[in-house]
Amino acid sequence: MKKSIMALSATLLLGGAVSAQKVSFEEYNLDNGLHVILQNDPSAPVVITSVMYHVGAKNENPERTGFAHFFEHLLFEGTENIKRGEWFKIVTGNGGTNNANTTEDRTYYYEVFPSNNLELGLWMESERMLHPVINQIGVDTQNEVVKEEKRLRYDNSPYGQMIPEVKKKMFTNHPYRWTTIGSMDHLDAAKLEEFKDFNKKFYVPNNAVLVVAGDFNAAQTKEWIQKYFGAIKKGAAIERETFVEAPITETIKARFEDTNIQIPMVVAAYRTPSMKTRDARVLDFISTILSDGKSSRLYKKIVDDKKMALQIGAFSYSQEDYGTYILYGLPQAPSTSENILTEIDSEIVKLQTELISDKELQKLQNKYENQYVNSNATIEGVADNLATFYMLYKDVNLINTEIEMYRTITPEEIRTVAKKYLNPNQRLVLDYVPSSDKAKK
């Protein structure tokens, strides 16, 4: 009885914390199509200005991959009114921080300033949209920066080619088949006019959302937004092609040799639906059940109890059009990759045939409640969520309501989704092994 009362108290406290986290916001459009979202939070004297553009690696010419990520770097080079090399100096000199990131689906830029520098942040992002300087010096400079990033993250990193290899095997038609960093040969071959054309097509107000979150005066902020963004011309409508992948009906087998590793890895990857679907949220739960932490099913069984693997993991690579669910393991001798895959499959079969317990379901819901609270605990997290839910999900209020989907997932749904997507004939099995050339040396 005492335990039940304590559990009920914890649930009520958690529910209260989640309710307290409801995010209030205002949204509207400028005449040029720029969508604006304002989220006022006066709890700290800071403010974030962020702009998300609906352009990512999937919008690239197959012969010019890497452009979206390249622009993440290039558009810090300077503008007509911000000299080359001055962007970061202006931000740090005014007590701010900034960053940017790119995915297959979107590109995101932001600055965090003391609230008295909000106008500066808005001006800088309007400069990026209206007056970017795209010249050969900037292109050549950032080309070298991107090449070094590729060397560090992919070419010279242990297991760095795992995601690229999975993507190219899982997708044959969709642009998700290449990585965001793209091909260095494509970037080398590109002419300056191609970069300018890419900017003109995608970096327009009607392909963007501006989020201002933090401590600000709403009336003054709207005036500044109109002042700096209102005169920017609307871009041409962007025609977006739909790419459909045929279902995977038999196991895809592949092998990749990596000179940077000594221990093989087995990878099982399944194509899954868009991150916007309910099934994608259920797959998040499944990923957590199988491999999130040392108490997860795979880790406890394969690493702790049977000591068959040095490491085991699973994650959903969620995207706007499709997702990829990836499981991986590093065998510990005398176990092999085949042994690991057999154990992984046995745990998936359990999910497909047995209902998880109420206790396990409650643990999942508590974990996702906590993640929800944490994701909205900073203005950076709130701004990112607001922009993402508008741009990729077409529903800003998911920042408040998505958690309800996770709260209502049932054990029966988990079993059904596992049966639907996680079958041997619907997957890629990648043997990721040390290079045979390295082994000979």
TrEMBL record:
Note whether Signal occurs among the keywords: yes
- Fetch the Gene3D superfamilies from UniProt: Metalloenzyme, LuxS/M16 peptidase-like
Q: Specify the Peptidase M16 C-terminal domain's residue ranges.
A: 192-367
Recorded GO terms, molecular function? metal ion binding; metallopeptidase activity
- UniProt xrefs under Pfam families: Peptidase_M16, Peptidase_M16_C
Q: Which positions make up the signal peptide?
A: 1-20
Q: Which domain of life is it from?
A: Bacteria
- Regions that span the bilayer: none
Which family does the record claim for this protein? Belongs to the peptidase M16 family.
Q: What is this protein called?
A: Predicted Zn-dependent peptidase
- Organism, per UniProt? Flavobacterium gillisiae
Q: What are the leading ranks of the lineage? A: Bacteria, Pseudomonadati, Bacteroidota, Flavobacteriia, Flavobacteriales
